[in-house]
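Subject — a protein and its fold
Fields — amino acid sequence, structure tokens
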Amino acid sequence: MWDYTDKVREHFLEPRNVGSIENADGVGEVGSIACGDALKLFLKVDENERIVEVKFQTFGCASAIASSSALTEMVKGKTLDEALTISNQDIADYLGGLPKEKMHCSVMGREALEAAVRNLRGEAAPEVEGEIVCECFGVTDVQIRRAIAENHLTTVDDVTAFTKAGGGCAKCHERIQEILTEATGTPAPASASSPAPAPKPEEKPRMTNMQRIQLIEKVIEEDVRPMLMADGGNIELVDVDRTTVFVKLQGRCTSCPSSGITLRTGVEAVLREKVDPAIQVKEG
């Protein structure tokens, strides 16, 4: 499982300020469920533009929930201009750090705050600037360059961790490397200029970690959950660490003496068949 800090666990298990604000002064929404993470932020301010109430709704992993919860605590009592100085690194630091692969969750929080402030002030959302580099997640070169500059990124994996760019089909990796080279002046690794060998006809193309997570979510939603609900049970996806999937059984499954068998012969078997034969399922 990801090496989460105690602060991340605390904000995941007991998130602060969850919900919505009726007649909110500002609302910011970023991401999409289709891409795996979505966040909606609600702000209420006084006559001096000081934030007096903030709430959030999110769909995502433990890091997304914890980052959103942390952000709401950080902006309370601040003016909008003060809140806007909070960076994604500040959110991660508040939580005692985030796994590198989850840093995009803190970036999403900062972007939702910026969107909510624009909405409150009646400012139009900025037009998409620059070229779309990652078509899977709609990430532009401007966003990538900003992430590189603000977080001192040096590799394609770093860029994916902070922006999700390159986490889908991976076709944009070469362009991301070009942007990295332009922004940092660091030449591309020797291997980056050599295209990966094409998979043999009988082999399946290798999935990126993000593709694997999305497929796991889809299989659990469409195949595993209906199977468990038919017997009065349910399941929650807690986290994914490479080929280890952490879930929480719910409903009748929690008191069933055969829950361990359900995990192995039910959940794990389906995920191995439809996602990856190396998958292991554990209760988390």
Remarks:
- The chain has three domains: 6-120, 132-191, 209-283.
